[in-house]
């Protein structure tokens, strides 16, 4: 896959900018980066905090063929690719916490958000894979201080954002090619090797806590509820329908 990088200084959100480019017909491999986001977002509508120039903020446009139900697998794929990239550029052994956070020493160093759009007939139109990696922070706001970390805090130095981006895109392209050829089954063993499963506490669809057991070849989490029931959970993400019928700007 060939990448074309749009490097911005400040934007509302790299996700929003990538969505605008996707709606305008941008090709797969379009990448948006920014030094700062005014309105970055994470999963479940949470804000994504960043200080200017201290994070790698990137969104990648993918146009996989297939049903919308496969889109959440790309969030898992992204987590694996970033974990491999951090090991490559910084020798950092990040662990994937279901579904799409990366932890070092139990603290979050990266978050991933996959937003999919369908063609209104249940087929994928595109997926925007958003990645935020803490690079140079030496401190965090009080609300994050006990649960966030950065490459500088972990290693004593912050690698250049361009080097981290190149490694992320290299591993993402390799894993994406494998996924297109063999689905999540082709990535499952590598994903589990870098994950915090089994035994991770996970949020069940009814809002209660359960315990993660495994991830299937379809990327669906197998968990056990407090009453002993086995529950199957699809990883997080959002889908907007009808994009090819009415472009959203």
Following the backbone from N to C, one meets helices and strands in this order, namely: EHEEHEEEEHHHEEEEE
The rounded Rg comes to 17 Å
Integer average pLDDT: 90
| Total helical segments | 5
CATH architecture assignment: 2-Layer Sandwich
Strand tally is 12
Q: Structural class of the helix and strand makeup?
A: alpha+beta
General description of the model:
This protein is of the alpha+beta class. The protein has a single domain, classed as BirA Bifunctional Protein, domain 2. It is built from 5 helices and 12 strands. The strands form 2 sheets. Strands 1, 2, 3, 4, 5, 6, 7 and 12 form an 8-stranded mixed beta sheet that branches. It has a 4-stranded antiparallel beta sheet with strand order 8-9-10-11, with no helix packed on it. Helix 1 (14-23) links the parallel strand 1 and strand 2 (30-37). Helix 2 (72-90) packs across helix 4 (161-182). The longest helix has 22 residues, at 161-182. The protein starts with a strand and ends in a 9-residue tail after the last strand.
Characteristic key phrases:
249 residues; alpha+beta; BirA Bifunctional Protein, domain 2; eight-stranded mixed sheet; four-stranded antiparallel sheet; 12 strands; 25% helix; 30% strand; disordered C terminus
Q: How would the blueprint of this fold be written?
A:
Layout lengths: L3 E8 L2 H10 L6 E8 L17 E8 L9 H19 L4 E3 L3 E4 L2 E12 L5 E11 L16 H5 L5 H22 L5 H6 L7 E3 L5 E7 L5 E4 L5 E4 L4 E3 L9
Parallel strand pairs: 1-2, 6-12
Antiparallel strand pairs: 2-3, 3-7, 4-5, 5-6, 6-7, 8-9, 9-10, 10-11
Helix pairs in contact: 2-4
